[in-house]
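In this supplementary section we document a worked example of the pipeline. Step one takes a protein sequence of length 177 as its only input; no multiple sequence alignment statistics are reported here. Step two produces a three-dimensional model, which step three serialises into structure tokens for compact storage. The input and output of this example are shown verbatim.
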Amino acid sequence: MSAEPDPTRTYLLILSEREAVAWVLRHQQMAFPSTRRAEVERLAVGDRLLLLTTRGCWHNPTRDRTRIIGTAEVSSPVRTYEEPVTIAGRDFPRGCDLHLDNVTPYRTGVELSPLVPELEAFPDARPGAWAVRIRRPLLELGRADAWLLTGELARVAGDPAELVPEYVEKVRAAVSR
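The serialised model returned by step three reads:
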């Protein structure tokens, strides 16, 4: 007798702009660009998201690292907005609601690079080749990868109600400089 397959998927939700991070955390939504991507079309209520910030997200790629900063669950289907959402000067015409489960303190999280050799999602072993795979809004993870990353994140993440306000405040201050 085999176990029933888990109908939910787990994805890295890739955020490469600090204003987008603050918007996603504050609104508990994800907005997507108009470009059609198969993984966005497959996104379903109940799917799990590991929020990832790229090393360029905070505008200092020599200092910052690509990190997993939280987890969320998709809580609505992807839909077209009546008016596109504008974040950091870009329009996003569709999106979905999220329920944040946890988040790490501002600009911390689980660094991805040291874990890449253990992750099936990054099969190309050449140095730095893994970064090409995160130039998209979503990257589907296998069960083992999701388990490893979620376990690492659980050690450092906390309550979004306590931690999200700092993201919003500090991003607002950085943008207004």
